[in-house]
Amino acid sequence: MAIDSDPTVRAQELGEALRVLREEANLSVRTAGARIDASASKISRLENGKNAVAIDDVAALLAVYQVTGPRRRKLLDLAHEAEQRGWWQRNTLTFAERQETLMSLESRALAITSFEPIVVPGLLQTGEYTRAIMVESGIVDDQDVENRMITRLQRHSVLLRRQPPGLLAIIDELALRRVIGGRDVLRRQLEHLVEMAQRPNIAIRIVLNADRGHPGIDGGFLVIRRPEGTPVVFLANLTSSLFLEETAEIAQYEQVTRELLNHALDPAESLRYLGEQARRLDTGVPYEDHPRAADLD
């Protein structure tokens, strides 16, 4: 059941959709509640995912907001599933729809931990780097590249607001050595990482390739810490997104995070590493001749 102390991702997603619909209808919380014989506090709690979801209430609100057809069916389906933990969003949803859930979680986050072994974390990508990933992958249609890039870049605004979440970005060195978009694009991306790391809410840690494995070898992930309830782990692949909410699963990813930090350069060393690699790309020094941790002092 979605309760105050631990709302589910589905309940919060439903609540956010209902809030948007109410605002589009130019109704206050009090007025919307009066229309379905409910208190303003009940509507507020429903919109925040903090109340057990009553299907009749959701159906009544959708009628008040004049929502019909597929959109109504989608939200009622979500209401029926609101108490379920864990959410596998498969390819029945578009890329933009899957990103909406992620962005909604990030917009409410207190802190975000990101681990990426393949590319620069999405929250820290430059526009040209993002575009190059999509174009060079060869699997995104040309007409969809710009739409996807805009959707992804909308995520960045959460880091620039007045009270942003903390971001810990742990990046495997191999992701930074993949020359996506060419040397100039990668150099500017590395310089952007250095610039973003100057912000008080952002820390970047680099895991060097020390000829050994590490606990993040199974793939990238996000751990999103919410002001209410347990953290949520986000995983993504080509056709689906997965939100994990079970305590035991979250604990495993938190353990992996601790182990990765044991392998990683400290924040100052990580910044020196990024700066050195950007300079090498700028001067044409072979990128393969990169320094080891001992050379960063």
Overview of the molecule:
The protein is of the alpha/beta class and 297 residues long. It folds into 2 domains: 9-80, lambda repressor-like DNA-binding domains (434 Repressor (Amino-terminal Domain)), CATH 1.10.260; 87-296, Endonuclease, Chain A, CATH 3.30.870. It has helices at residues 9-24, 29-35, 40-47, 55-64, 69-80, 95-108, 127-137, 142-153, 173-177, 183-196, 247-263, 267-283, and strands at 87-89, 111-116, 166-172, 202-207, 221-225, 232-236, 241-244. Strands 1-7-6-5-2-3-4 form a 7-stranded mixed beta sheet, with helices on both faces. A hairpin with a 4-residue loop joins β6 and β7. The radius of gyration is 21 Å and the shape is elongated.
How many structurally independent domains? 2
State the major sheet.
7 strands, mixed
How many DSSP-defined strands?
A: 7
What would CATH call the class of the largest domain?
Alpha Beta
CATH topology of the largest domain: Endonuclease, Chain A
Low-pLDDT residue spans? 289-294
Fill in the keyword field for this structure.
297 residues, alpha/beta, 434 Repressor (Amino-terminal Domain), Endonuclease, Chain A, 2 domains, seven-stranded mixed beta sheet, 12 helices, 12% strand
Quick description:
The chain has 297 residues and is α/β, with parallel strands linked by helices. It has helices spanning 9-24, 29-35, 40-47, 55-64, 69-80, 95-108, 127-137, 142-153, 173-177, 183-196, 247-263, 267-283; strands at 87-89, 111-116, 166-172, 202-207, 221-225, 232-236, 241-244.
SSE layout and pairings?
Blueprint: H1 9-24, H2 29-35, H3 40-47, H4 55-64, H5 69-80, E1 87-89, H6 95-108, E2 111-116, H7 127-137, H8 142-153, E3 166-172, H9 173-177, H10 183-196, E4 202-207, E5 221-225, E6 232-236, E7 241-244, H11 247-263, H12 267-283
Parallel strand pairs: 2-3, 3-4
Antiparallel strand pairs: 1-7, 2-5, 5-6, 6-7
